[in-house]
């Protein structure tokens, strides 16, 4: 008896969740298909029912993680967009986000992996970065910081801050860098 559409969707989601977790912890090259599928509780053969290649899964995992990030969430109409952006920045540039075990930010956690990967993966990352900065530009629309380069700088600052802090063995230094990034981000958002 063939699997239902719902079962196939759930299986695909389990593979994506495993990919997000394993790629962010160990990097693209260190993760094998066997590792991914074991983590997902499935057989290696099932992988090819959902993805053509590990690279395709990598790109899909980045998209999936980006779509579930706080930055991607719609801002309710009754909430001040600048205040909402400040809240997003505070949450993103925090120890809690840095240590997030279940849904890490692949934009920061996989930045060096992507730079050394195939053009299609880099294209996906570029697309996600553009959407992230566009989202920030929309949230900053009501302030005087609406210059497009401000949103680009803010996105790069956030991703870079988390990526750098992730490499530290010194939590105090990470706290100081995250705090400095939050302060600089606030000055960009509130620019006159």
Report on the structure:
The protein has 2 domains: 5-60, Arc Repressor Mutant, subunit A, CATH 1.10.10.60; 66-189, Tetracycline Repressor, domain 2. Helix content is 69%, strand content 0%. It has 11 helices and no strands. It has helices at residues 5-26, 33-40, 44-47, 54-67, 81-92, 95-98, 106-109, 111-115, 119-139, 148-167, 171-189. Helix 1 packs across helix 2 (33-40). It starts with a helix and ends with a helix.
Which helices and strands, and how do they pair?
Elements: H1 5-26, H2 33-40, H3 44-47, H4 54-67, H5 81-92, H6 95-98, H7 106-109, H8 111-115, H9 119-139, H10 148-167, H11 171-189
Helix pairs in contact: 1-2, 1-4, 4-9, 5-11, 9-10, 10-11
In short:
The chain has 192 residues and is mainly alpha-helical. It has 11 helices and no strands.
Helicity range: 55-70%
Described by the principal axes of the CA atoms, the overall outline is globular
- Beta-strand content: under 5%
For the record, give the distance between the C-alpha atoms at the N and C termini, rounded to a whole number: 64 Å
Instruction: Outline the low-pLDDT stretches.
Output: none
Number of domains: 2
Number of helices: 11
What kind of sheet is the major sheet?
Answer: none
CA-atom Rg in angstroms: 18 Å
The quaternary state of the protein chains shown equals single chain
CATH architecture of the largest domain: Orthogonal Bundle
> CATH topology of the largest domain, which one?
Tetracycline Repressor, domain 2
Class by alpha and beta content: mainly alpha
């Amino acid at each position: 008896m063939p699997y239902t559409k719902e079962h196939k969707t759930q299986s695909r989601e389990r593979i994506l969740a495993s990919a997000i977790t394993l790629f962010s912890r160990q990097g693209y090259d260190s993760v094998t298909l066997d590792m991914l599928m074991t983590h997902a509780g499935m057989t290696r053969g099932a992988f090819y029912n959902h993805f053509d290649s590990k690279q395709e899964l990598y790109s899909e995992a980045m998209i999936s993680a980006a779509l579930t990030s706080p930055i991607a969430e719609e801002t309710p109409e009754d909430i001040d967009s600048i205040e909402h952006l400040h809240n997003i920045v505070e949450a993103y540039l925090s120890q809690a986000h840095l240590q997030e075990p279940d849904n890490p930010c692949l934009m920061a956690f996989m930045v060096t992996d992507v730079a050394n990967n195939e053009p299609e993966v880099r294209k996906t990352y570029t697309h996600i970065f553009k959407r992230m900065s566009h989202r920030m530009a929309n949230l900053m629309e009501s302030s005087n910081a609406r210059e497009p380069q401000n949103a680009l700088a803010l996105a790069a600052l956030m991703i870079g801050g988390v990526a750098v802090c992730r490499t530290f063995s010194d939590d105090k230094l990470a706290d100081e860098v995250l705090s400095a990034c939050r302060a600089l981000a606030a000055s960009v958002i509130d620019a006159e």
